[in-house]
Amino acid sequence: MKDFWEEQALRYGEDIAAVNFDPIEDQFGAALLEELVPNNVSVADLGCGNGRNLLALARGRLNGTFVGYDFAENMVRVAENARKRAGFQNVRFEQLDATTPTLPANAKNAFDVVIGKRVLINVKGSAKAEALKNIYDMLRPGGIYIMTECFIEPLNRINDIRTILQLECISVKPFNEYLTEEFLAEIKRRFVIERVMDIGSLYYFISRIFNAYLSDGKPDYFAPINKLASKLVLSGVRPIQGYAPEITHVLRKSQD
After folding, report:
1. Threshold 0.85, pTM exceeds
2. DSSP run (H or E) holding 112
3. Would residue 121 be called left, alpha or beta, if left means φ above 0 and alpha means ψ between -120 and 50 degrees?
4. Is residue 212 a part of any domain in this protein?
5. Long-range CB contact pairs, 211-215, < 8 A, 24+
6. Is 8 inside any structural domain?
7. Are 225 and 50 in contact (CB under 8 A)?
8. Is residue 110 one of the residues assigned to a domain?
């Protein structure tokens, strides 16, 4: 898995393709972060990839401090080069595995906000709980973890409909392990769930079902129907829920 992400960084550099196979969908997470992350706070992006999201946040929050962590050395290098070119003094990038048994001293109780997009699906089994503990330990008392992860249940709903239409089911990539709704019990051991935000169901329903069917199972991410669905979502049109595997939870650190 690590080799895959190292290669992604070498191949795509700062491009969105390095960190997301669906560039249109990536806009939704970026829009949520703009809404959820305040100014004048310390922010860690765990699994920051090539640093796109963190640098975008820092651009509009000059009074905040930002640290991006990723386990792929090439991703960190790409992100740091982008930071230098942009001239940010309040951002830094470091190599760190989310499941490390020992956090660096300067990462403990250091952040008001930790953001993580598709971090936990890139670790398997008990390693998920280890990563959660590290995120908990990184946050200051009352800190917020903005968790954007993929859940298997919405993907199953999409696949049920694709089966009816005789479309091939969407499989989870071998290096991923999607979360289940049962895993929320583990999350609740350390965090209070303040908000659950499923903003992408309309887009997933249209792109993974309508677009796939109209394209004979070979859809283009940039097809006009996908762009229309994205425009509707970003305009606040969200008439359905439960079909977006990628869901954002706003979690507050429980008291020790």
Report:
1. yes
2. strand 111-117
3. alpha
4. no
5. 212/162, 212/165, 212/167, 213/165, 213/167
6. yes
7. no
8. yes
Determine the residue type at 87. G
Tens-digit pLDDT string for the chain (256 aa): 788 999 999 999 999 888 988 989 989 999 999 999 999 999 999 999 999 999 999 998 989 999 999 999 999 999 999 999 999 999 999 999 999 999 999 999 999 999 999 999 999 999 999 999 999 999 999 999 999 999 999 999 999 999 999 999 999 999 999 999 999 999 999 999 999 999 999 999 999 999 999 998 788 889 999 999 999 999 999 999 999 999 999 999 997 5
Query: Would residue 227 count as lying in a domain?
Result: no
What are 52's two structure tokens?
Answer: 């796109």
* Edge-to-edge strand list for the sheet holding 246-253: 91-95, 65-70, 42-46, 111-117, 139-150, 246-253, 191-197
Among 139, 148, 141, 128, smallest CA distance to 44 is for 139
Q: 192 and 211 in contact (C-beta within 8 Å)?
A: no
Counting beta carbons within 10 angstroms of the beta carbon of residue 237, is it exposed (0 to 12), middle (13 to 18) or buried (19 or more)? exposed
Domain of residue 87 covers 2-151+173-199+241-253
Number of domains composing the chain? 1
The CATH number covering residue 140 comes to: 3.40.50.150
